[in-house]
Amino acid sequence: MVVGPGDDAGIFRYGNTLLVETVDVITPIVDDPYTFGAICTANSVSDVYAMGGTPLTALAILGFPSCDFGAPVIKKLLKGCIDKLEEAGACLIGGHSIEDSEFKFGLAVTGVVDKKGVLTVAGASPGDVLILTKPLGTGILTSAAKRGKVQKGVLNKVIASMLQLNKTASKVAVRSGARAATDVTGFGLLGHGLNIAKSSKTDLVIFYDKIPVMDGVKKFASLGMVPKGAERNLEFCNKDITYLKNLAREEILILSDPQTSGGLLIALPPKGLKVFARTAKREQMPYWIIGEAVKGKGKIIIK
Amino acid sequence: MVVGPGDDAGIFRYGNTLLVETVDVITPIVDDPYTFGAICTANSVSDVYAMGGTPLTALAILGFPSCDFGAPVIKKLLKGCIDKLEEAGACLIGGHSIEDSEFKFGLAVTGVVDKKGVLTVAGASPGDVLILTKPLGTGILTSAAKRGKVQKGVLNKVIASMLQLNKTASKVAVRSGARAATDVTGFGLLGHGLNIAKSSKTDLVIFYDKIPVMDGVKKFASLGMVPKGAERNLEFCNKDITYLKNLAREEILILSDPQTSGGLLIALPPKGLKVFARTAKREQMPYWIIGEAVKGKGKIIIK
Predict the structure, then answer these.
(1) CB burial class (10 A; 0-12, 13-18, 19+) of residue B289?
(2) Which of A81, A98, A116 finishes a domain?
(3) In a domain? residue B3
(4) Chain A residue with minimum CA distance to B57
(5) Among A171, A174, A177, which Cα is nearest to A128's?
(6) Residue A1: inside a domain, yes or no?
(7) Among residues B81, B100, B116, which one ends one of the domains?
(8) Residues of A in contact with B108 (CB under 8 A)
(9) What is the pLDDT of residues B87-130, one digit of tens each?
């Protein structure tokens, strides 16, 4: 097991315990403070799940303009955080607040991981099946929502997806023998996919039509309503992407859309697929097989 | 052992291990990024020392306006952080950066603590001697320095004090049988002293003339050059302070001056004083006996 700079969390051995630790801070993506606290928490603990670990504790990091937001907002935010941590089996044991011009919230999370079940970005091998556990589009949809363009039903689905912990996805991945995973967050599917590809020294073939996308995302993308982060991500990744399918720029930008509390991207040896399918079914966990790892040097090929 | 809301760090039991965790984020108080990184690190790990613990790992939290600061500044900052962590015996295993309008840096730190050596704010008893391990004045002096009012020699001494880890102070306190400590930081000596007083349900008697103060502090305070934080802290604390000595407001404000990487305030049973003195001497650690805990309900009496 080697944990490298591209991994979702750091690992530290203390005695027989492997501590897995991560920190994440984000700006609000929904208006309701309780929901934002819960999404932020799901997003932060996700890095521990992406390493195959179990979160134990969290510390809150809060930046806010105290003139604009009072105690009731902070209380709701923390309630959302604590409830979601409870769902994850972890607890909030401290935190720090700082006066800030813009609202920010995040968590430093400590978990533990079993040596045999560590998932890293360097663990993929040619032949592995690529599995994604949440559809893409949280960046595009939450940006559109800020402009009041998203129907309530659609927005509720995005929020439900962001609130979903990657706890089950992590458990299913470890049980079925996966060695590589990452959570799809700020760098989009392409950025995090390339992270696996480069660290594992393989290429990843991704079948565009197999990629799950949230309702409304294609419409907003086709209207050019994509966050700047998606453009920046694509600019950064594009030299390492080979397109074997004819795609419009707005179709590609969906793949670089920055996700908040996105799903796990798992590279699974094919012999683990049966166990994966069975366990996922039992846990009622949706998943999508979107491609495979092939021999290569760290690129993504889109078919 | 009870760890409460006023303690410097949270404690979580995992198997036979007591994890001690804390997070702190601050804005720059010196111009040089290496020095700021190192001070910020000494300040963050201090909360683990204040609990009697040993830091193991740290996660960096960085907010910065990427247009104004480039990679060289961040590299120097992180080098200062990593060097100071090495001195503390801990290592940086991850972090998170976020675009911000103002520079901010901090660490989430995880350490371990021996059950028998936990220092809490609730552990003081009447009769305990109050010991402070660094002189006061970092807030007043760094504010004055920002206005170019502080001589280089004086400023260098403040910086040296902030760079000093509370590692030895923590070790000496635990070895000599202390049960209560806190580090003097943002709420000043009065704020953190009241934290011990209220949590321990004792009063603290502090002898004003015994309090160590950095060079230049009294001068700047008498000129009214005190940071707003000192005024806010005093306003918050004042109802719980009894003055048996005639002091000017600017003399009092030194006691509420917010400290960065301040010393430990230790409540030590008198029978531990010999060991404390002997160990401190061997470790070449300065300290000042500034008062004592007496029966009471959580107030500070200044004599």
Answers:
(1) middle
(2) A116
(3) no
(4) A12
(5) A177
(6) no
(7) B116
(8) 21, 23, 59, 61, 108
(9) 999 999 999 999 888 899 999 999 999 999 999 999 999 999 99
